[in-house]
Structure formats: structure tokens, C-alpha cells
């Protein structure tokens, strides 16, 4: 560059982030059905994933992993393939345009010394890896007192891990990625 050539400002480039890219190959039609809705022990878990400003995230992906109603963890292969009758222990649901997700599953039994819970993973734009949390059930309050993980969470934050019972066999569990009421996330 010579002295006679004026400097031009560089064009502004957008910041780089991860995703959203979950709409291809990761969600699948039967993903939210850990068990079929018609089973008498089926429960519905639904909620909304919110960003730090309290806005719904329309392009997140929510996964759940859990034990069955007897506290047994499935160990057979093929969790993605649903036969319409069994329990896989795994579910995956993309959020809808309003940030909502849902699962048809069973209420898990306790595993070891833990209160019954469902492991929840959230994949969202801007994250290099998913964030991990747990969903506990409000009617298991007595078991919450002796749960090792809940015991390590400050009392004022434990409520972010406990679902709200909205009807018989239906629970709501909203995930707040940051900000007021941020969900407690776990490090592994």
C-alpha cells in the first residue's frame, strides 16, 4: 500500500457460532416416544428451552436418558429403533418454533441412592458441547433429602431441577440456559 492510497474500513463479518444444525439427521419421528402414549404407565414430560433473555429457543435439541420404572438401566442395543411396545431409556426431541419439547416415557425408579430422575441433555446454538442437567419429580420429596447430587446443590437452586406436576401423569420441566432462574447444569 502506498501513501497515496487511503485506508478503507474492513467489512464487518458476523461472529461465528456452532449451529443451529440439529434439523438434519438428529431428530427423528419416534424420538420423543421413549414408550408409546397408550401404555397405562406412560407419562408426558414437556417444557420450553429459554435463552438468557427469557426468549424461547426454536432450534435446540433435547435428549433424555433414564432408567425404567423398576430402576433398571436398559443395556440392549438399538435405542433408536422403537418397536411400539418396549422401553428404550433414550429419547430425542427438537424444539418447535416456540421452544417447546415433549416426551412420552415412564416415571423412572430409583437407581442406587439417588432419587428417581431423568438425565437431560440440551444441545443449542453457540454451544460446543451439550449441557447436562437432571429432572426430578415433585412427589419424591422424601427421596430428594438423601439424593447425593441434590445435596450438593444450594437449596435456593434445587427448584430448577424439579419438574412441576401439571396433571395426572404429566410434568413440565422448563430449561433456562442462563439468566434469572438459570437451570443448574452439571459438569462431567
UniProtKB/TrEMBL annotation:
* Keyword Magnesium set for record: no
Keyword terms:
Dioxygenase, Oxidoreductase
Any coiled-coil regions, as ranges: none
The EC class name is oxidoreductase
- GO molecular function per UniProt: protocatechuate 3,4-dioxygenase activity
Q: What's this protein's name?
A: Protocatechuate 3,4-dioxygenase subunit alpha
Q: Which SUPFAM superfamilies match?
A: Aromatic compound dioxygenase (SSF49482)
Q: Which organism is it from?
A: Actinomadura sediminis
Q: Intradiol ring-cleavage dioxygenases domain: which residues?
A: 42-140
Question: CDD domains recorded for this chain?
Answer: 3_4-PCD_alpha
Question: Family, per the entry?
Answer: Belongs to the intradiol ring-cleavage dioxygenase family.
Catalytic activity, EC:
1.13.11.3
Q: Which Pfam families match?
A: Dioxygenase_C (PF00775)
InterPro entries hit by this protein: Intradiol_dOase_C (IPR000627), Intradiol_dOase_core (IPR015889), Intradiol_RC_Dioxygenase (IPR050770), Protocat_dOase_a (IPR012786)
Amino acid at each position: 500500500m502506498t501513501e497515496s492510497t487511503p485506508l478503507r474500513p474492513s467489512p464487518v463479518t458476523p461472529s461465528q457460532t456452532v449451529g443451529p444444525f440439529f434439523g438434519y439427521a438428529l431428530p427423528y419421528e419416534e424420538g420423543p416416544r421413549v414408550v408409546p402414549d397408550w401404555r397405562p404407565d406412560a407419562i408426558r414430560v414437556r417444557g420450553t428451552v429459554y435463552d438468557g433473555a427469557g426468549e424461547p429457543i426454536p432450534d435446540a435439541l433435547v435428549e433424555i436418558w433414564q432408567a425404567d420404572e423398576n430402576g433398571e438401566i436398559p443395556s440392549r442395543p438399538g435405542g433408536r429403533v422403537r418397536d411400539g411396545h418396549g422401553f428404550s431409556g433414550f429419547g430425542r426431541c427438537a424444539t418447535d418454533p416456540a421452544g417447546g419439547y415433549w416426551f412420552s416415557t415412564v416415571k423412572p425408579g430409583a437407581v442406587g441412592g439417588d432419587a428417581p430422575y431423568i438425565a437431560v441433555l440440551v444441545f443449542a446454538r453457540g454451544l460446543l458441547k451439550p449441557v447436562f442437567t437432571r429432572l426430578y419429580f415433585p412427589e419424591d420429596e422424601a427421596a430428594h433429602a438423601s439424593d447425593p447430587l441434590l445435596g450438593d446443590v444450594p437449596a435456593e437452586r434445587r427448584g430448577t431441577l424439579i419438574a412441576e406436576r401439571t396433571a395426572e401423569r404429566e410434568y413440565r420441566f422448563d430449561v433456562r440456559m442462563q439468566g434469572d432462574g438459570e437451570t443448574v447444569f452439571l459438569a462431567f
